[in-house]
Specification:
310 residues, eight-stranded mixed β-sheet, 7 helices, binds fe (ii) ion, 18 strands, alpha/beta, globular, Metallo-beta-lactamase, Chain A
Length: 310
Amino acid sequence: MRGEPLKASRVSITVVVDNVIDIFLQDQHPIRYPRPGRCSSLLAEQGLSIWIEIEGPGRSGSCRILYDFGRGGPALRRNLEILEIDPRRADYLILSHGHIDHYGGLTGLLEDKSVCAPLVVHPRAFGSRAIRQPDGSMAGPWSIFQDEIESLMSQPLLPALSPRQIGSGVWISGFIPRSSTLDPLFSAAVRKEGDDWVADQFEDDLSIFIRLEKAGLVIITGCCHAGVINTLRAASTLFPGEPIFALIGGFHLNFVPSEAVKRIINEIDKHQPGLLVPLHCTGAAAQNLLRQHFKERCPYTTVGMNISVP
Ligand SMILES: [Fe+2]
Ligand SMILES: [Fe+2]
């Protein structure tokens, strides 16, 4: 985006939908957790949605993003209301990839016509997907079709095939190159191509990179099917020499053997992230290993948590 400032001055990130809810966590700077009371009615769901507010420097404008939309149950709408987030304020809707636990709530959000922000998406996110089970059966299929989404939208889709700036210091990753041999393959995931089911290469996987003036880079991932290491490398390649302040989102390390997770953790550590917030598909076992290694730099996670960074 021509003329956008290079860096943002502040970001506030709120987890709207996630797999777990815990209202008994102690605040830990820069994290604020939901308190018992109104937030006791927040819902967890096997899905992800994150609300991001970015402030630009000086008099330049702010940018608000709803990144992913949960699985399609009641959690998205209810949690937005409890957390007092009005999705009509969004400047952008961004879909991380074409899995139902990320796009499930999108149709409902668009159908009430109150949310009219453009949707940033990789074109490969559209289509049908399924998961091969160990016994040979298939979970799914689940489908999201471009023409159906476009018919509900008042603005055109914004395709993100390569890195793209959308606001003050706010970038969409576009396709994330694969160079790491450590990142696990999600080989059970398949997508429909013509009449065939083929291995899903997740070309559509989009992360968000936010360049903060003081703190450094904040990286926000959906399921991170491109791989945590590949995503960190993509951010470092795009913004060489900038420190990584935070890595926040799903890391998709569930069912990955602990020895492989430990190798990934050692590689993450080389990037010296100041904060790790492993959500959603990271899985409890990998979250525990991350906490053992990064200690207070890897806080507990829950629906309703907020991370505010100047
Ligand atoms: Fe996924
Ligand atoms: Fe997911």
